[in-house]
Write a structure and sequence with these properties.
Layout: H1 16-33, H2 41-56, H3 58-78, H4 89-179, E1 183-187, E2 194-197, H5 200-205, H6 209-214, H7 218-221, H8 225-234, H9 247-253, E3 257-263, E4 269-280, E5 286-295, H10 297-319, E6 323-327, E7 333-336, H11 338-344, H12 348-351, H13 366-380, E8 385-392, E9 398-409, E10 415-424, H14 426-467, H15 473-485
Antiparallel strand pairs: 1-2, 1-5, 3-4, 4-5, 6-7, 6-10, 8-9, 9-10
Helix pairs in contact: 1-2, 1-3, 2-3, 2-4, 3-4, 14-15
Length: about 475
Amino acid sequence: MRLPSPLPRLQPPFWIGGVAVLGMIFWIETLRQFGFIVPTPFILLFFAVALTASIDGLLAGVTSATVWAIYLIYASAVHVGSPSLTGGSVEVSLGILVVVLLAVRLGWIKDQNQKLIQKLRQASLELERRIEQRTAELLTTNSRLSKEIRGRILAQEALGKNELALQLSQNRLESILSSLEDVVWSVRPQTSRLLYLNSAVDSLYGYSISDFLGNSNLWLEVIHPEDRERVQQKRNFFSNNSLPLSPQSLLAIDGQDLEYRIVRSDGQVRWIRDHVQIHTDAHGIAIRIDGIVTDITKAKQVEEALAESERKFHAIFDQTSQFTWLLQPDGTLLEANQTALNFSGLTRSQIVGKPFWQIQWWTQSTQTENSLKNAIAQAATGNFVRYQGSVLGLNGQVITMDFSVKPLRDENGNIVLLIPEGRDISDRIRAEAATLEAQNKDILLKEIHHRVKNNLQIVSGLLYLQSRYIDDESILDILCESRNRL
């Protein structure tokens, strides 16, 4: 705020004092001309000079004193006799000296006062300027501090909200981790010190969190003896003798899944899958190893049951004497039994995943391949297809097969598999051909016998007719014997 400055005082010219004294002298002399004698004019003029010097300063005082001295000398020289303005020359000189000294002193004091007042005014203006500058600085600082305070208040509020959100997030995360059936753990790679372990460890391992915190080797002790050495080689951070881990060791276990067995505190054996993730800082230095342990006991049991079922399936599938295949609905081969493989000299790895009609069995001719394609297309629509065809085997061997394709549906009625089957009927075809040939020969013999018999009957009839016209007994006996032979 700007302070009001005092009004400046108008400085009269230096000669105004001389004019004032001159005017007073003129007034005194005028009165004298009219017969009026002014009492004590010396004192009046003295006070006029003193007042002028006091009011207008040194130069004005000297000017008025000079005018007064001139008048005093003039009056002393002109006015002789009573009433006298002055005394003798000594008094005049002393009077002039006193007045001049007084005027100089009073004028100097006045000038010093004026200079002091001017300095005070300048100091006041400078003070006012500094006050204004300081006020502006204070206002700026106050505004900046207000903004900083508001910013800090907002930051504090935001920090409080963030801390609350972080706490809520941590609570939610802890709630989620506590509700998981999987064991979540975290260790420091430099010391293998356990940083975190959720409560699921109790139900999976049969040991509490405090048990693992109190025994750093418990992780290794619960591993099944048959799997311990293998796991220890893969998970070398379980052993304190391997610390600290090298970057190569950390890189080898990063993202690695390992399946092994553990022995619970109650003696039960569980299969688990342990997944490890390495976390590094900005310089690539490992700062934490996190892991998730999943109970896969049921999955292993299902896997073993599936493997047993697979063994039983192949025991039946491969032991049958007929050719059997499994196809996708589009004709891609999924499986072939050992009988079909032995006949072709192929292995499963050579044919699985290929179109069925492009495999050696059906490459004898284009007609054979097209017949198979048509059969697969009809079976893919839900029809059972059966026909006879020939297949090509090892070393160019060709057999005749009673071939069929049967669709297999799921519980929703969708066709999921095609089951082609083939039985070697080459021997039956040959036997049927031989039987047919024998039957044809028998028929031919019977026909020949019938025709020969008919011809002999004709000959016998002719001999009989001829004997009726012969009288010679010997010839008749010959003819009769010939008929009997026929």
